[in-house]
Structures are given as C-alpha cells and as structure tokens.
Amino acid sequence: MMIRWFLGLLGLFHLLNGLWMIAAPDAWYAAVPGVAMTGPANHHFIVDIGLAFAASGVGMMAAFRSGASATAFALAGATWPTLHALFHVVEWFRDGVPHDTHIALSEGVGVMLIGFAGIALAWTRAKREGVV
Description:
single chain; mainly alpha; 6 helices
C-alpha cells in the first residue's frame, strides 16, 4: 500500500511540474536552479518537456489504484523521469558535479533521486503483482 501512495505522490509531483512548464514556461525557467545556465529559454522545448512530465505523472498516478493495469501505467509513467535522470548522471560524469550547491541539489534530488525512486517503486510493485 505504501508503494502505491509513494508512486502516486511522485506522479502528482511530475504532473504539477509538467503543468507548470506548460502554463508558465518563463516562470519555470527562472525558478529551477541551473536551467538558465543551459542557454536561452525556448518555450517550445519547455512545453514539449512539460507534456512529457505531465503524461508521466498521470501514468504514475494510476498507482493510486490497485491492479495489474494500474501497475503497468505506473511503470510506463516512471520511464521518462528515469531516462531524464540517467541523462543528468551522464552529464555529471562528463562535466563534473555542479559547483553551485542549489544546482547540485536540484539535479541530485529533484531529477535523479526522484527519477530513480519512481522506477524502483514501480518495478518493485510490478514484480509483486507479476506484471514483469
């Protein structure tokens, strides 16, 4: 039951982040540490990524329900945040850990930890329910 709730809450986090990116790309761009260092804001790109986060969030929020289909949706929803987290890990290996503590925490917790936690919880639930 706890896994379902944690997955659902992570899904809500991703959904809200995605909706923020869609509704207010400039505010999102300015608020997230380190994003402005990647170059000028590109509204199209921010909204595209926001749509991916929103879709992932909805899939992960299916975890609030019981059953194999809800588990499959949660597992599918956890895929994008995991791939995003892996990309940041590769960047850290290539470029080093950011020197700015706010950026390092934002990426380390907000991207990597949350991304990997989602897939770990979804995979655990899928194994328990015989989905994978």
